[in-house]
Amino acid sequence: MTLRSYQTRWFEVFVRREQVVYALEALAGTNSIQLELDPRFSGSLDIDHLRRKIREFDQLADSQRQWLPDASHKPTRLTGPPDKLVDPLLRRLQRWHDRLEPLLVASDELETQRYQLLALQEAAIAMGESASQLPHLGHTTELLFKRFFRCTPDQVEMVDFEGHLERTFRGEDHCFVAIACLPGQCDYIVQLLLQAGCEEVLIPPDLTERPGQQLADIGQRLDETDATLKHTQQQIEAMRNDPGIAEALANIETLSWFTQAAHQVGVKDTEFCHITGWTSEADPERLETVLSRAHVEAEVRFASPPAGATEPVTSASSWWRQPFQIFTAMSGAPSADEIDPTGLLAIVIPLLFGYMFPDTGHGLVIAIVGVLLSRYTPKARFLISCGLVSALMGIVFDDFFGYQMLNQPWQIHALDNPILVLIIPMFFGIGLLLLGLIFNGIELYWRGELRRWLMSDAAVLLLYVSLLVSLLYIQSLLVTAFALLWYIVGAVVLDGRRWLSQVAVAIGELAHSSLTLILNTISFVRVGAFALAHSGLSLVVVSLTEAVETPVLSVLLLIIGHAIVIALEGLVVFVQTTRLVLFEFFTQFLRAEGRFFQPLSSSRSPRDH
After folding, report:
1. pLDDT of the residue at 269
2. CB-based contacts of 41: which residues, under 8 Å, 6+ apart?
3. Are 27 and 287 in contact (CB under 8 A)?
4. What is the mean predicted confidence (pLDDT) over 425-436?
5. Closest to 354 (Cα-Cα) out of 366, 343, 344
6. Pair 9, 237: CB distance under 8 Å
7. How far is CA 446 from the centre of its chain?
8. What per-residue confidence (pLDDT) applies to 383?
């Protein structure tokens, strides 16, 4: 387990302008580069035209979003000036849109026609021999106004036809109403039928008038409409699976991604582009190999970064360390000459969490929740280790959902041994604080300031240890006096110009540092206090459920009670664990003066169509 952040290096890639999109995507696929514009070059690549064209493409695509192919198609190799690549894609989409639009209109019209024919077919069946009257109902003359409606029986009863000629035909599911009246006198009755929820059935003007042939004519029209509709839908489906449009969408996705990163691409001249930034790779040949496999001709080299550029740092990418990077990030990124505590947190945080939440049942529930949440966010994986340690601590404290299961002599029953439960985490805290002081010395050594640590902070470390040992052996106070003298002498040696005032300042700083360490040590008592609080809460839940005589209600109360304990106490314990790490441990050594390495992600991400 390394304690130092991994170093990043400044890289430069010279690539022809027509290959810059493909080159950038190939580099992003390594997950090892962070782009940063080199101010020593003339400026970033002009991508305004590209962005405007992509917006036009997206607006056109949005108008037919539901008919677009899915995003599973892989982009082609994009070679050529970026601002010239989007125009052919836009023209291709426009042609596809122009062909699709009339097909969709025709499909809607055929669907409506089919719906009307089905209604007319149902009417012909309901009318029986009277179906021969249907062609006459479709012919409106100057002297007689005719309309035909499909209604439910309840809807027909809602309409008063008094004073109007009407005839009703009853089918299995609907009633069909034919009305006839003088022109200009039917508006009211038509409005009543529509308000009641009836639907008008349109009768084709060329429906056959031969007796008994209307149903066959409607069936033939329906078959022809179904065939035409099927053919139209097949054409639409073929366009929906158009590989050319799928390819265009994938390429636009790549170009859209490129516009987000292209502001970090410099222009070397009219022919070449200059890609610069930081990489976690140790050898430029690795990047050259990636570009060569992508058939991109480019020159890669490691060079000196621009003046004033801050080198980002990257933590080890081990799966067991990654979930705990969120705790380090709360304080900020360690610089290149600072300890990276992420790996150590993978041990410290589960131990603190588990001790404050010692319950085998609760711990397993938390671990299961961590497994489920990690499917959606990898950051939740820290709950798995915290839950498993809680389960192990539950065995030590003999606690399973508030019940004592084993009753072994080696187990600690928290409420029976409160002093022991409070003291144990203090020793853990002492070790953690000592480790923080040692880390501070290591960092000063890395920065070439070991002499300063030996003259001041080393004396604080000795003073802290001697005071702790004096609780058992009073003779160690002699070492305490020596550490005090050491610190004062060290302060005078470091700055002896005004030694008298420097001694006073040194004593004040030493008193502040010593008091802070003592308070930080005592602060770890809260770890044991939360362990006692957990045992008390679990006992309350168990006592309440045992007092209920109804078995079903008792089980329900037990489940609800433990759910509340897990949610409430889990949140509180998480907050306290974070506080102890940030304010007691990190303050001993972590200055967080760096910035995190943020690798460029690939464009191969799902696009919401």
Report:
1. 56
2. 266, 267, 268, 274, 276
3. yes
4. 94
5. 366
6. no
7. 37
8. 94
Pairing, β 33-35 against β 145-151: unpaired
Q: Quick check: is 567 in a domain?
A: no
- How far apart, in Å, do the first and last CA atoms of the chain sit? 44
Asked whether the beta carbons of 97 and 64 are under 8 A apart, the reply is: yes
Average pLDDT over residues 484-494: 85
Do 536 and 415 form a contact (C-beta atoms < 8 A)? Answer: yes
DSSP 8-state symbol, 139: -
73-127: pLDDT as tens digits: 566 666 666 767 788 888 888 999 899 999 999 999 999 999 999 999 999 999 8
CA 304 to chain centre: 36
User: Exposure of 148 by Cβ count < 10 A (0-12 exposed, 13-18 middle, 19+ buried)?
Assistant: buried
Closest C-alpha to 228, from 95, 347, 394, 113: 113
Alpha-carbon distance of 541 to 557, in angstroms, equals: 8
Residue 445 lies in a domain: no
Residue 116 lies in a domain: yes
CA-based radius of gyration for the chain? 40
Domain total for the chain?
1
Q: What are phi and psi of 33, to 5 degrees?
A: -130, 145
What distance in Å separates the CA atoms of residue 578 and residue 573, rounded to the nearest whole number?
8
Q: HSE of 319 in the Cβ direction (CA atoms, 13 Å)?
A: 4
Token output for 381? 């994986």
Cα–Cα distance measured from residue 91 to residue 178, given in angstroms and rounded to the nearest whole number: 52
Mean pLDDT of the chain: 86
The conformational region for residue 434 under phi > 0 = left, psi -120 to 50 = alpha, else beta, is alpha
Q: Extract the tokens encoding 238.
A: 């073929």
Q: How far is CA 404 from the centre of its chain?
A: 40
Segments forming the whole domain that contains residue 165: 111-213
Alpha helices in 200-266 (DSSP H): 214-240, 243-261
How far, in Å, are 112, 171, 176, 192, 205 from residue 152 at the CA level?
A: 20, 10, 8, 14, 25
* Residue 289 falls inside a structural domain: no
Which whole number is the average pLDDT over 559-565? 94
What lies within 8 Å, CB to CB, of 607 at 6+ separation is 71, 249, 253
SS (H, E, C) 336-371: CCCECCHHHHHHHHHHHHHHHCCCHHHHHHHHHHHH
Nearest alpha carbon to residue 45 among 21, 10, 76: 21
pTM across the whole model:
0.65
